[in-house]
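Archive maintenance. Older records in this collection stored only the sequence; we are now back-filling the structure field for every entry so that each record is complete. The fields below show one back-filled record exactly as it appears after the update. Entries are processed alphabetically, and Phenylalanine--tRNA ligase alpha subunit is next in the queue.

ARCHIVE ENTRY
Title: Phenylalanine--tRNA ligase alpha subunit
Organism field: Haloferula helveola
Length field: 338
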Amino acid sequence: MKDQIEATQTEALARIEAVADIRSLEDARVGILGKQGSLTKLSAGMRDVPKEEKAEVGQLLNAARQAITGALEGKKEALQSEADAKALAGIDLTLPARSLHTGSLHPLTLIRDEAVGILRRMGFALADGPEIEDEFHCFDALNTPADHPARNEKDTFYFDSGKLLRTHTSSVQVRTMEAEAPPIRIIAPGSAYRRDEIDATHLSVFNQLEGLYVDTDVSLGDLKGTLEYFFHELFGSATEVRFRPHFFPFTEPSFEIDVKLHAKGQAPKWIEVAGCGMVDPAVFDAIGASRNDDAYSPEKVTGFAFGMGLDRLAMIRWGIKDIRLLIENDTRFLKQFA
Ligand code: DAH
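Back-filled structure field:
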């Protein structure tokens, strides 16, 4: 029996040693340690071993099993690393990896979302209207007379039908008041179109954000407080904001809003960021005529409105010197906002 154990062990170890792949190794394991395996069969002979030899033979069997198990494991590891090395051969691990390009939000989207977020926290709801407008919603209802320069064919894209590409988002004011009774507090971000020569500060398609608040007793103080708060939130609470008297046909009084810009290495300067004012009673009258009711009678309601260029806000926020960067989709520019 002892000789048999020794012979089985020697044979098993030789078989394991000779194996060349993982599958044959598994066959060898079954052939030695499996139910019908050589060592398993040998172990069954224990019952015929005389009592006084049982301990010694048992030890031998255990030692053989351990040696074989160890050899199986060792061989498995060796085969595995051989396979790994083969898989890696020919791959140059020092080559730079292909970089993954993750997209990011466009600066205009970032500034729009931020502006909308601030105003929504103050209770403004989103509204919108068509970009292809008619003269009534873009001009007439906004107290802009037929001979106003903004209506000139040189400044506005007209269709043969008489419709036009809206020159400002203020048309959404009219559409909202026609559709809903006061009180209303809306903002409308969106595109506007003008026949401007494209240069570092002008595009023929640009982005605005319009606001309108109408209720009983809306005051100029409300207008100032709201917009001052807005620009402090957007550009920092230390930012100086000033309201400079101006003229718009649809508001009276009207103002332009400037913020003081402290660009690095430059003297601080005031820069215009928005137009605003108290809704002109003539606008309410036009809405009354269109709605055919007196919900917006200037005797009953007052309101303020404002409009700002989102492109301009993005340029100020990030010190962008040329507005064309916002439409060129140059990833060297855009990836700075990732
Ligand atoms: N619509 C004006 C523009 O495009 C901006 C504006 C000024 C909007 C004053 C307003 C406002 O609502 O009250 O230049």
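Update note: The chain has two domains: 2-88, 107-337. Strands lie at 125-126, 132-133, 164-165, 184-193, 205-215, 241-248, 251-261, 269-279, 302-309.
Entry marked complete.
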